[in-house]
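Q: Hi! First time asking for a complex rather than a single chain. Here are the components, and I think there are two in total. Is that enough to go on?
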Amino acid sequence: MNIWIELENAERGECRPLAAVIESIPWNADGLITAIAQQYDSGEVLMLAWMNHAALSETLHRGQVCYWSRSRQTLWRKGESSGNRQRLVEARLDCDGDAVLLKVDQQGPACHTGRPSCFYNAIHRETVEVITAPLNH
Amino acid sequence: MNIWIELENAERGECRPLAAVIESIPWNADGLITAIAQQYDSGEVLMLAWMNHAALSETLHRGQVCYWSRSRQTLWRKGESSGNRQRLVEARLDCDGDAVLLKVDQQGPACHTGRPSCFYNAIHRETVEVITAPLNH
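A: Yes, that's all I need. Here is the structure of the assembled complex.
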C-alpha cells in the first residue's frame, strides 16, 4: 500500500522508516517539493522555497537548511554568503508528501530584501501595502 | 520598473494599486501560485495548496478561501462539501509574488484526513511519526 495512505490511516504515535518515506516522496517534474520555513517560536512564516532530494537530505543530516535554487539551478545553503542561516528545529511532511514544513531558528532576516519575512506585501481591498522595513534600515 | 522591485525598495506603509500588483504576478507554467494557509491566531501552518487568477480573485472578493485543484482541474471552494471552510483574515504576497500567505480562520480540520493540519508527519532521525489524530476520532 502507498505509504501516504498508510500514514493517513496510522494512529497517533505510529512510525515508518524515514528512508522509506523519503523514497516515496512525489517529487514534481523538476524533482522538487515545496518547503515552507516558519520561525519555530514566534510562528511567523518566513519564506517559501524548494528542495530536491539532495537539499532535503543535507538539511536533515546537517540541521542547517539547504534549498534548491530554481534560478541558479544549484544547492542553496541558506545564509552561506549572507550569514542569515536557518537552523532546523523540526521538519514535517504533509499528507501527500509534496510539501515540507521547516520549523527553524532564523538568524538575521530571512528575505533577500533584508526584511524578517518574505511576506511583507499585505493585500488590502484596493491596494498592496509594504508592512515591514529591512532590518537595520 | 518591475513592481516587485518597486515594492522591495518601498518604505514601510507605501502602497501600490492591487490591480497592478495582481497583473504582475508571475504565474507558473500552469498559471498558478503557491498558497500557504495559516491559522491567524495560533500561527499553525494548516496546508499548502495552489491558486490561479480566478481562485485568488474570488478569495479576495468573497473572503472565503478558494484554491485551484490540480488533481480535479477545477476551482476548489475549500469546505464547500465538507463544511471545513477557511475565512480569510489577511493575505500577503511574498517578495517575488509567486507565493501568497493566507491567514485564515479554519472551521473544523484543514486536512482531508480529518486532522487539524496537513503537516502531521514529523521527521525524526530514523523515522517519520504521525503526531496528530483526526478530530472526533
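A: Chain A touches chain B through 53 residues (CB under 8 Å). Let me know if you'd like any chain examined more closely.
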